[in-house]
Amino acid sequence: MQRDLFSFERDWYEPLRAIRSLGSQAPSIAHQGELAAARRQHLGQFFTPDAIAAFMWSFVSGWKVNRLIRILDNSVGSGRLLQYADPERHAVYGVDVHADVIQQCQKVFEDVGFHCEFRQAGMEDIHPARFDIALINPPFSIHLESPHLQTLECTTWGRYGARTSALSHNYAVHQALEAANIVVALLPITTAESMIAGEQGDRSKRRAAGLFELPGDAFKLEGANVRTAVVVFDRYRDRPSDFVRAVVDDLAKPGPDIGLHFEDRSFGEARLRLQKLDDSVPFITRAVTGDKSVMVSHDGRRIRLSFACGFNEAMVLNTVLVKRIYSRDGHRLPRGFRYSGQGLLDMETYLVQDDPVAAFGQLLDRIGSVGGNPQLAPGFMEHFRRRMRRSARQAIPLRHVAWTTGAGSRDQVSGIAKETHKVDATRWASPLIKAGDEVQFDREADGRYRYELHGVWYHLSVDELNARFAVENVSEGWEVVHEGLCARFPDQAAALRSRVKALGVDQWLDWEFQVDDLVETLLKPTGCVVAWEQGCGKSRLALALILVSGAKHGLIVVESRLIEEMLKEIGQLPIAADQVKVIESAADLGDLRQINLISYERLRMPVDKAASARVTYAHRLRRRIGLLVADEGERLANPTSDQSRALWQLSARRRFVLTGSPIPN
DNA sequence: CCTTTCCACCTCATTCGTGC
DNA sequence: GCACGAATGAGGTGGAAAGG
């Protein structure tokens, strides 16, 4: 049944041959700057021309053995490289990121009677093993980035840590070498040469059996302009000098016999080992009972649905989760996100709505719409309302008073235009206001000012208004921009103030604004940024925050050189020595006090470098801190720096950042 | 005289490597 | 960790040189 090489009659492969690759359909680029964008479009998909496929196949076509020969293509496309396989002699396996072609491959190869497995997956999603032959023409120069990458020589440091980034064609070859005894690969000439020269690890050099330079126009029909070579790797080589290097001028001739070592025995089943979600087994195994109740409970911020009936579970989950989603095209999903409706099961989603209860009601309606009967777990609504109050309070801005001259201090003002200007400078036909015109303004609820011109209402911010108009009938003075939390929650504020007194904190936090700010910030349930000028007593505020909040374990993070100063400051205050601890060694971690001090440097340092680089002080302190105070908050400007990440890793319940310069110059 | 091949150069997003 | 610079390209173009 095997077709003759180099004869291209109509046959079973015809439907797949009709597919055109994305790369060959892509419009040509105008200059190099569009290269990367074009690659994102066509996924680096260029199919192998039949003549080259035949040439590559000719190296392995002579192998006859009394079992199925297992062939892998880790970027199979439309299966061009597998078209000379014989259902009675070969089992074919392939993956590709492009779903359309994969489905068609599976159908056509299956119909011919192949033992085959085609899956929609990137080569980064599989860990193939136990193949006899890998025939590959990988996408070139696509940047792979996945936590699932195998630890091959070609991997580098990536977004997900060490060995999580690689170049597609390099990775494809190394993966094939790992998975198969014999590898026939089509590569850019530069990569091919670096592999046989041993620049990509000794193993690829030792296994290299031949390099065949293809004509420069080999991929012209596919619309690609690249110099390529076919590289053949053996299981092993008897003598390195057996290496064959040749220039192919006639693609209609088979490759030379280079004495490949074919292994007649086989060990175990060939496997693609997909790392993605496996949908080959049912996800829902609950019995169908007809009980439509859906128990709605929560686990932290996650909303849990529990079911009594498998059918009901399927119906409800399908309508809530909607569909499976994947990261693609550089768009990375939040960790743990698999379904487009998953956000509906996150309580925080509802808390940020204008009306959280109504929004949550929609989730219950949605469950009801497919026959579910939602029942709230005892205490669920109480928890939900508590979280609502908490998030509402966190959203209220701190008290803010500003010195204003001009508009801003009244609800209705009139202004005289300083100079002739357009009402909306961004619009061409915008009406004009002439210098000296008088305009009446009304303040809106959002703080902007509204005025009418030729029957149309326009809006101006306070700053714009003051810039454009000389404002009359106002005086300058302090204006309260935001009332703040003390005014909104007077009872809680009073309770905090009496606590401050009871603890005697007001004895040493003796400037009036210090206690005011302390109470204001402590009313924030999860914390805030406190920007005080130098010399206002930030270190005292840090101590007061911990003491007044009543946290069991508070942590103050400071620069290492400031720890001494901090201790000196504490020495002057009526704070018992056994309340304070400076964390300097692993032993200190087991003995936390109410006030703990640590430096940024130590926080991100491994506790025991020899044992693990991952277990840092921050890691050991994770979730043990009730209230965290980060001094010199400007050090956290870069959210990806080690010290910022260490601070996040702590996951303290309440977090306060103190800084003298919140806005960098 | 016409066609093909070769070569230098263009341009810029992206990645990779290095020194501090 | 960070900033910065070098390297690179499933490329493209125009003109010179070589070939027929």
Characterise this structure:
The structure is a single chain. The protein is about 30% helix and about 20% strand. The chain is an alpha/beta fold. It has four domains: about 200 residues, Rossmann fold (3-Layer(aba) Sandwich); about 100 residues, no CATH class; about 80 residues, SH3 type barrels, CATH 2.30.30; about 180 residues, Tandem AAA-ATPase domain (Rossmann fold, 3-Layer(aba) Sandwich). The strands form seven sheets. The chain has an eight-stranded mixed beta sheet with strand order 3-2-1-4-8-10-9-11, with helices on both faces. Strand 6 and strand 7 form a beta hairpin. Helix 15 crosses helix 17. The protein is elongated and about 95 Å long. The termini are far apart. It binds a DNA duplex (20 and 20 nucleotides) through helix 3. This is Helicase ATP-binding domain-containing protein. It comes from Caballeronia fortuita. Pfam families: Methyltransf_25, SNF2-rel_dom. InterPro entries: Helicase_ATP-bd, Methyltransf_25, P-loop_NTPase, SAM-dependent_MTases_sf, SNF2_N, SNF2_RAD54_helicase_repair.
What Rg do the Cα atoms give?
35 Å
CATH architecture of the largest domain: 3-Layer(aba) Sandwich
Write down the overall mean pLDDT. 83
CATH superfamily of the largest domain: Vaccinia Virus protein VP39
Instruction: Give the strand content.
Output: 15-25%
Helix content: 25-40%
- By secondary-structure content and strand pairing, the structural class works out as alpha/beta
Number of strands: 29
Return residue spans where pLDDT drops below 50 for at least 5 consecutive residues: none
The main β sheet shows up as: 8 strands, mixed
Strand order of the largest sheet: 3-2-1-4-8-10-9-11
Number of helices: 22
Oligomer designation: single chain
Terminal CA distance? 75 Å
- Shape descriptor reads elongated
CATH fold-level assignment of the largest domain: Rossmann fold
CATH first level of the largest domain: which class? Alpha Beta
Number of domains: 4
Pfam family, one: Methyltransf_25
Protein name: Helicase ATP-binding domain-containing protein
Domain Helicase ATP-binding: 519-665
InterPro entries: Helicase_ATP-bd (IPR014001), Methyltransf_25 (IPR041698), P-loop_NTPase (IPR027417), SAM-dependent_MTases_sf (IPR029063), SNF2_N (IPR000330), SNF2_RAD54_helicase_repair (IPR050496)
